[in-house]
Design goal:
With about 325 residues, this protein is α/β, with parallel strands linked by helices. The protein has helices at about 1-30, 50-65, 80-85, 100-110, 115-120, 145-155, 170-180, 190-200, 210-220, 265-280, 285-295, 300-320, and strands at about 35-40, 70, 95-100, 120-135, 160, 185-190, 205-210, 225-230, 255-260, 295.
Amino acid sequence: MIFKQLHKFFFYLLLLSFSLFFSFFSAHAQNWPSKSVRLVVPFAAGGPADALARFIGMKMTSELGQPVVIDNKAGAGGVLGATDVIQSTDGHSILFASTGALVIVPAMSINPNYRPERDLIAIGQAVNTPSVAVVSAKSRFNKLSEIVSYAKDNPARLNYASAGSGTSTQLGTELLKRDASIFITHIPYRGAAPAITDLISGTVDLMFADVPAVISFIHAGQLKALALAAPERSPALPDVMTTSEAGFKTVISGTWYGFMGPAKMPVEVVTKINSALKKALQHPETVVFFKSQGVEAAIGSPQDFSKFISAEGLKWGALIKSANVKPD
């Protein structure tokens, strides 16, 4: 009899403990954010990605009621910043993640200590940045089809620049090489800036670059845009045909960005950040800014972003394997 009473007592005590535990975290989530939010940007300050993150963070500040503070943690293809957020314990750190850290790096290396699908939780996609095939204004080529035809007739005579091995700027051209059955020599640089400088001078023949990185050079007449690697034309480059229009329907590439949190981030907090992100992306000033940069807002749920990451992992993982892409 006493044993049964003790058993019931401990059973109810356990239920009470669970109730208090979940009540605590529920109250914590409701009061979130209780201080400034740290948005870790795994890129150097001053670049296109940093500019996008700062603009979005500024718009989210009014929605969250606390400042969104940018913390640049560049290095290792975005893994340095991602690892920082994974290991954070302050409950107010989120990651401005990109294709590289979530898809490309995991596909190129076997590192059991870095598994974004295990260690991070999707909050929401933010931006799609299409890439554009560009050549020097001095180039003989005016169409992407002309480059493909020349490469077929003159194997290994052309080269292309990238911002580094394993970057989206390499993979865009590798996608064209695979689907058009051509060979173009890869010239990797340490960053987009020196690659674009050599492209303008004519030292290299071609580059698939993110639109924000080259749009000013296109408008200035220093680069020629041959085709946008996106399903539809961009309002920022309305006269530039898409790769589909150029005859290469499967050559769709670019860089995307989104928000991720530590794996143990409460669902209520994820929902709150996602809501603030959606409102920031729909703000009229954001619409104007994105249009000027040639990028698109990507508004969706955490589940939408998670599925998108998985699909992108399959697409680029297969290309990385077939093209034998290796990190620097």
